[in-house]
Amino acid sequence: MRGIYTLANDNDRVIEDTLAFLNSLFTYEQNCPVMLIPFNDEYHKIASIVGKKYDVQIYDNKDILRALDLCSKEIFGKETHMMRKFACWFGPFDEFIYFDTDIVVLKDQKDTFDLLNEYDMVRDGSIRKLGIRSVFKERIFERNLFPKHEINELFNAGFFASKKGVIGYDQLMSILKEAVDVSDIFDHVGDQPLLNYVMLRAIPRRANLRLLKPDSIDAWAGVKGMKVKGGRIYETDGRPVRYVHWAGLKPVAMRPYVSLWLKYRYPERKWVFKRVILNIYYSVLQIKVGLKSKLRTILKRILMKFFPKLFTATT
């Protein structure tokens, strides 16, 4: 059975993102079951909303979720519930796709699922633009843990696809225990370094969706110059985007391409007026913040020119 996982809780922004994500997903995948992995113990509100509206089921193996929380504490010194993404490999779906909730899906997932006939994991390679930043520290090259060409195969943890049984529970726990001894190679506390580490350690048959299906690509919403048209978004070279990810761009009002997010958050005809008003309001806020930033920059340049001593460090 094929299915889709996501991770959420009762945080107001997360609820809003989850509704936009699900509305977009079911625009293109009407019959694919979805399961929500609780981010923490505060998930009953979102569970009730998505259960009634979309028939989303809740991942209920609390033992696995708790074990992953404890692993994160051993590795990073504190619990990070984002590690619960690893629970996907032990859920009910034989083949699955994981999406973060701050994503809007703009295409059906057939080609991604079909690649699982040949590969054990599918991810996109857009993070390669950043090199190893946001995953590993430079010292990873000194450790000889992986071939250098494999370290260039890193991915953003907001999207990946795989199959049940590719990683066994005991195998995963063993790899995560190993990670404790090399925790100083991870760029930050979170799921992304660990997911990449586990992929490199345990999943050799992996596919880069961006390379194998270049006709439509993933996109980070922080990329400038993309065009929104007809409920879709297009890269600067004109290629359609399969999904757009607002990772790191949390306040909805300040997000780039917020009109696209609003379309899927309020898709019903009765919400057209609300969508238009919010789009105008958010656009004005963004212009206002942008002008303030430019004014600060101009003021600083003027002060530096006429009063350079103000910016000269004293000893």
Our estimate of the beta-strand percent is 15-25%
- CATH class descriptor of the largest domain: Alpha Beta
Shape annotation = globular
Summarize the main sheet. Answer: 7 strands, mixed
Label the structural class.
alpha/beta
Query: Count of DSSP E strands?
Result: 12
Overall tally of structural domains = 2
The CATH fourth-level homologous superfamily of the largest domain: Spore Coat Polysaccharide Biosynthesis Protein SpsA, Chain A
Compact description:
This protein is α/β, with parallel strands linked by helices and about 325 residues long. Helix content is about 40%, strand content about 15%.
Description:
The chain folds into two domains: 2-212, Spore Coat Polysaccharide Biosynthesis Protein SpsA, Chain A, CATH 3.90.550; 218-306, no CATH class. The longest helix has 35 residues, at 272-306. The chain has helices at 12-28, 44-54, 62-76, 110-115, 140-143, 148-151, 169-181, 191-202, 209-212, 258-265, 272-306, and strands spanning 2-8, 34-38, 57-58, 95-99, 103-105, 121-123, 159-163, 206-208, 217-220, 227-229, 232-234, 241-245. The model has no long low-confidence stretch (mean pLDDT 91). The chain has 315 residues and is α/β, with parallel strands linked by helices. A hairpin with a 2-residue loop joins strand 10 and strand 11 (232-234).
